[in-house]
Write a structure and sequence with these properties.
The complex is a heterodimer of chains A (about 575) and B (about 450). Chain A has about 575 residues and is an alpha+beta fold. Chain A has a domain at about 1-115. Chain A has helices spanning about 1-5, 15-25, 35-40, 70-75, 90-110, 135-140, 145, 450-465, 485-500, 520-545, and strands at about 120-125, 150-155, 160-165, 170-175, 180-185, 190-195, 200-205, 210-215, 220-225, 230-235, 240-245, 250-255, 260-265, 270-275, 285, 290-295, 300-305, 310-315, 325-330, 335-340, 345-350, 355-360, 365-370, 375-380, 385-390, 400-405, 410-415, 420-425, 425-430. In chain A, helix 9 crosses helix 10. Chain B is an alpha+beta fold. Chain B folds into 2 domains: about 40-60 and about 375-395, no CATH class; about 60-355, YVTN repeat-like/Quinoprotein amine dehydrogenase (Methylamine Dehydrogenase, Chain H), CATH 2.130.10. Helices cover about 15% and strands about 35% of the residues of chain B. Chain B contains 6 helices and 30 strands. Chain B has helices at about 15, 40-55, 365-380, 385-395, 400-425, 435-440, and strands spanning about 5, 60-65, 70-75, 85-90, 95-100, 105-110, 115-120, 125-130, 135-140, 155, 160-165, 170-175, 180-185, 190-195, 200-205, 215-220, 220-225, 235-240, 245-250, 255-260, 265-270, 280, 285-290, 300-305, 310, 320, 330-335, 340-345, 350-355, 440-445. In chain B, helix 2 (about 40-55) packs across helix 3 and helix 2 runs parallel beside helix 4 (about 385-395). Chain B is globular and about 110 Å long. The chains are: A alpha+beta (about 575), B alpha+beta (about 450). Strand 1 (about 120-125) of chain A pairs antiparallel with strand 1 of chain B, so a sheet runs across the interface.
């Protein structure tokens, strides 16, 4: 059951790939042998171990088996069946490729042994619930360095929004009353602190921690890490929510009037700008798996948007009441939505048919957030509840509960840390949620211990690999698949040829022959184009193999056939 | 509540930061796919960048060797030393070059009239040259004493000699002219003479694997196969136009490629000469010379249209085209034995050195560089069929005359096709049969 839920939607049959994974456990070796059709049919007898017959007690019994779950994690979908390939050479090539891919998958699964850190956990005695464990208890039982991650900031300027940078090292705070602060929250070193003297609706880190975007009362501003204003983007006005898409270098925004815009921050151009016709929507999140935007409107509909398509890629009626929050997990599998009706639903975002889980809460959630390890934080007024493993099974009580004496504005899980940062009505508080973060980061992807030089290098690399905005689709693996629809389009185009009228040609001779009429020549040319058109249509007909009328056997009435009306022949 | 065991992520910075500034940075990796989202589009962008960079770095021309006072007529590569090249010119001069220094080490007039052909002996100590003066001369490859400058051996042939090739292991070489003749160094008379009709042969080549087999191109448009152990020629195939030169695949004994006057190259299988295995098109004028890469996967051809093309041996169209403003009609091309360079001799007295793979970096590669290149190579292969990537990787700039000639050839081909179709549609079914392109250019095969 668990495995099934983890499947991607381009993998069709879970059973088959499971057996595949088990088969892959058998050790295989790669021999560099020229393959001919004969050798494919023959059983490779000489590959067998010579000691097969003898009874030998081996000290070393080959490579250790791989945990099938780990193998499944690194799977890139099931392979292509090479039995259907007709040519033996291509079949052999395909098989070789499959072997390579399987080998890579295994090596990736085996490399997990090299990971140094372990995931956080909370172990209690049998029968004791973890819900009631307070931050105070946690603080007492963890080491000093970890205990410093629990802290509270009391700030005066009204409800705060908080966002962590991609590597989880830096924190950005923006308040509705204009207070903007950026700091390294681990060392508590302040980068900048300014008051923009305007309301701030949303904030976002850009691709590096030296640039900050703030959606202020009128326009979008970009500041650097000393608080200097770099840009004021007046084309983006009255913005309510922002999301930064790091691999595309796009700052996706939605404004008060329902205009959505994607700003390419590497070249400063607006890639796409259109109205979503949903009215004022302040519930927005991105799907990190495919970089689409999820908007929730007041009618309870969640719609997915990409910059190239001006209509939603998909729409789901999630709740019958206005939505209060949406969140999508890191692997793009689950979406959690909540409505004013105090319900929270978990959806499989790739299937979109019916919620997987439906929870009823004590009050309507203010915010929802998935952590890297799929824990779900739910903000209920002054309480934040964290559910663990709530997508695949229905849980009856939260994993942790934290109560504060101030109302929650928003919260974010810190990437690569067991920390939840909460922006509240009067400040910011950071709490520890054991087991919520990914313990092992990939330094080439995002590195919390990045030096300045590394950051600069990574920036250049990332800019070189900027994904064009056109590639934002529901399935990010579209690009590796065969372009089937365009084949369909080709057929459509051919079909159209059949019913096309010959185009009119405007015949004006280049050189006028004075005194001679060109009527005859005109006719010839017109006839020629018409003939060409007809030929094309015939050709297209041939390609399409359209059924012809004559081949259809008519119902016979015997002698009475003469009374059957004859089809009129058009002249 | 006392028995709570809590573990949270708490990293010691010392484990993640380098100890000293001289150290390298620590880069812990985690290959979990959820940490690397959007794998496919990112790989696509990388492939796009890689293929663009490949075109940016495609600078194949390395340098030229000038010194000849007339057009270069023949080239010969040393069998064991990469830096040694012998070249003959239309004025009878032979030059020995040091390719590493790009300098001529020795030059002398060997023949009256053209130097028709050159070849090294398998040990590399001597080389043989044939000229228009009907002489076959052997020379020392290196000179120690002044005496070495004179030919070791001069053989006088009764008839014209226009090509020479050496047996791979035996002290035996073959010349062609009026007939194909087999010589031994010690004898002044040919040990064997192969005749087949009255034709003049202009190119001969020994097979490199099946060592006793040799093939010659005749001016009566035929390609003739001989066995040096037998008394008569084996087989011949007649084509529509004459073949200018011939190269054996060094890896597959039964495959050879001929450069034909009809702008194409034809790859034949010895076992079935009735039609070619493959036709390599793209040149827009007669192909003069062809030479295989030592891997047998690729070959290079030089043409009268002032361009060099590189073909993959299994493909019909060229992989790359090299040209410069100054390079005139090609007379000879050679692929170096380290599979890295191409040498070309042309009408305007220069020998040019090219890289075999235009964007390859010369010199030693660091391991990181190599893995990066391998990675981008794999990506390019993976996304090779995407329209953008294919367009960029196939894009070549060609001189206007080639561009126009190509367009012209295209219209001619279309015209022929149309004409044939018209004839077919206006005649009795079956009267105008479909002839495949591969069979079109072969007139007959004789045993």
């Amino acid at each position: 059951m668990n495995l099934e839920k983890k499947k991607r939607y381009f993998e069709t049959d879970p059973e088959v790939s499971k057996t595949d994974a088990n088969q892959n456990n058998n050790d295989f070796e790669v021999y560099n042998i020229k393959i001919n059709p004969k050798s494919l049919k023959r059983k490779p007898s000489h590959f067998k171990n010579k000691n097969d017959g003898k009874v030998l007690k081996k000290k070393f019994s080959g490579k250790s088996p791989i945990n099938p779950e780990k193998l499944e994690k690194h799977s890139r979908g099931e392979g292509i069946d090479h039995n259907n390939v007709k040519h033996p050479l291509h079949a052999a090539k395909l098989k070789k490729r499959e072997n390579k891919l399987n080998y890579a998958q295994k090596q990736a699964a085996r490399s997990e042994i090299l990971l140094t850190e372990q995931q956080g956990s909370l172990v209690v005695e049998e029968g004791v619930k973890t819900t009631s464990i307070s931050q105070k208890t946690i603080k007492e039982s963890v080491d000093i360095a970890a205990a410093t991650k629990i802290f509270d900031l009391k700030l005066d300027f009204g409800p705060y929004r908080a966002k962590y940078s991609r590597n989880g090292r830096h924190l950005l705070l923006g308040s509705a009353k204009g207070h903007l602060a950026a700091f390294d929250w681990v060392t508590k070193k302040l980068h900048c602190e300014i008051n923009v003297m305007e309301s701030i609706h949303d904030i976002s880190w850009l691709h590096v921690e030296t640039m900050i975007a703030a959606a202020q009362k009128e326009w979008l501003y970009i500041y650097d890490n000393t608080g200097t204003e770099l840009h004021c983007i007046k084309r983006l006005d009255k913005i309510l929510r922002m999301e930064f898409l790091p691999y595309h270098f796009l700052l996706a925004t939605v404004n008060e009037y329902g205009f959505m815009s994607w700003l390419d921050i590497s070249i400063g151009e607006i890639v796409s700008h259109y109205n979503n016709h949903l009215g004022r929507t302040s519930v927005m999140t991105q799907n990190p798996y495919n970089a689409t935007l999820c908007l929730g409107n007041s009618k309870g509909v969640v719609s997915l948007w990409s910059p190239t398509v001006k209509e939603p890629l998909a729409k789901i009626l999630c709740h019958k009441t206005p939505l209060t929050a949406i969140t999508v997990d890191n692997r793009g599998m689950y979406m959690a939505t909540s409505g004013v009706d105090r319900s929270m639903k978990i959806w499989d975002i790739r299937n979109l048919d019916g919620p997987i889980q439906d929870y009823r809460l004590r009050s309507a959630p203010v915010d929802l957030q998935f952590s890297q390890k799929d824990m779900l934080a739910v903000g209920l007024g002054e309480v934040v509840e964290i559910y663990s493993n709530c997508c695949t099974q229905t849980v009856d009580r939260p994993y942790l509960r934290h109560r504060m004496a101030k109302s929650i504005n928003n919260f974010k899980f810190c990437p690569y840390e067991d920390v939840l940062g909460i922006g509240t009505s009067n400040g910011f508080s950071s709490i520890i949620v054991p087991g919520s973060g990914e313990p092992n980061f990939d330094a080439l992807e995002s590195n919390p211990f990045q030096t300045k030089k590394q950051r600069k290098e990574a920036e250049v690399k990332a800019l070189l690999e900027k994904i064009p905005a056109e590639l934002i689709t529901l399935n990010p693996f579209d690009i590796t698949e065969v372009d089937v629809p365009s084949m369909k389009e080709q057929m459509e185009a051919k079909k159209k040829l059949l019913y096309l009228k010959p185009k009119k040609i405007d015949y004006t001779p280049r050189y006028k022959n004075k005194g001679k009429t060109n009527i005859a020549r005109k006719k010839i040319i017109k006839d020629a184009t018409r003939k060409e058109q007809i030929e094309q249509a015939i050709e297209a007909k041939k390609h399409l193999n359209l059924p012809t009328d004559q081949n259809i056997p008519k119902q016979s009435f015997g002698v009475l056939n003469r009374f059957v009306p004859k089809p009129k022949i058009k002249k | 509540m006392s028995n709570v065991k809590i573990k949270v992520i708490s990293r010691n910075p010392e484990d993640y930061l380098r100890a000293t500034k001289r150290d390298i940075h620590k880069l812990p990796r985690n290959y979990d796919p959820s940490l690397h989202p959007m794998e496919a589009p990112r790989e696509y962008v990388r492939a796009l960048n890689a293929v663009k960079l490949e075109r940016v770095f495609a600078k194949p021309f390395i340098g030229n060797l000038d010194g000849h006072r007339d057009g270069v007529s023949a080239l010969a590569k040393h069998p064991s030393r990469l830096a040694v090249l012998a070249s003959g010119a239309f004025d009878g001069e032979i030059r020995i070059w040091d390719l590493a220094l790009r300098k001529c080490t020795r030059n002398f007039v060997a023949h009256e009239g053209w130097v028709r052909s050159l070849c090294f002996t398998p040990n590399g100590e001597t080389f043989v040259s044939v000229g228009d003066d009907k002489t076959i001369k052997s020379w020392k490859a290196e000179i120690q004493t002044p005496d070495d400058e004179e030919p070791i051996n001069t053989l006088l042939s009764m008839s014209v000699v226009s090509g020479v090739t050496h047996h791979k292991s035996k002290p035996l070489f073959a010349t062609c002219g009026e007939h194909c003749q087999l010589w031994e160094k010690t004898r002044s008379e040919p040990i064997k003479v192969f005749k087949w009709g009255v034709d003049s042969l202009h190119h001969v080549a020994f097979n490199l694997v099946e060592e006793n087999l040799l093939a010659a191109c005749a001016s009566d448009r035929s390609i003739i196969l001989y066995d040096s152990r037998e008394s008569g020629p084996l087989r011949k195939v007649v084509m529509e136009l004459r073949s200018n030169s011939l190269a054996w695949n060094p890896m597959e004994a039964f495959i050879f490629t001929v450069a034909n006057e009809d702008y194409n190259l034809y790859t034949f299988d010895v076992r079935k000469l009735s039609h070619p295995v493959n036709i390599h098109v793209d040149h827009t004028s007669a192909v003069i010379d062809v030479d295989y890469a030592p891997t047998g996967r690729e070959f290079v051809s030089g043409s009268y249209d002032k361009s060099i093309r590189i073909f993959e041996s299994l493909k019909g169209h060229s992989r790359d085209v090299y040209h410069t403003k100054r390079m005139q009609r090609l007379t000879c091309v050679k692929w170096s034995l380290d599979n890295k360079y191409i040498l070309s001799g042309s009408d305007e007295m220069n020998i040019r050195m090219w890289k075999a793979r235009a964007s390859e970096k010369l010199g030693v590669l660091k391991p990181r560089e190599r893995t990066a290149l391998n990675y981008s190579e794999a990506l390019k292969e993976k996304f090779a069929h995407h329209p953008q990537i294919r367009r960029i990787s196939r894009h070549r700039h060609v001189p206007k005359h080639i561009y126009n000639a190509k367009k012209e050839l295209c219209t001619i081909k279309e015209k022929n096709k149309r004409k044939e179709a018209n004839r077919r549609s206006h005649s009795k079914p079956g009267a105008v049969p479909y002839v495949s392109e591969r069979n079109k250019h072969i007139v007959k095969e004789d045993e």
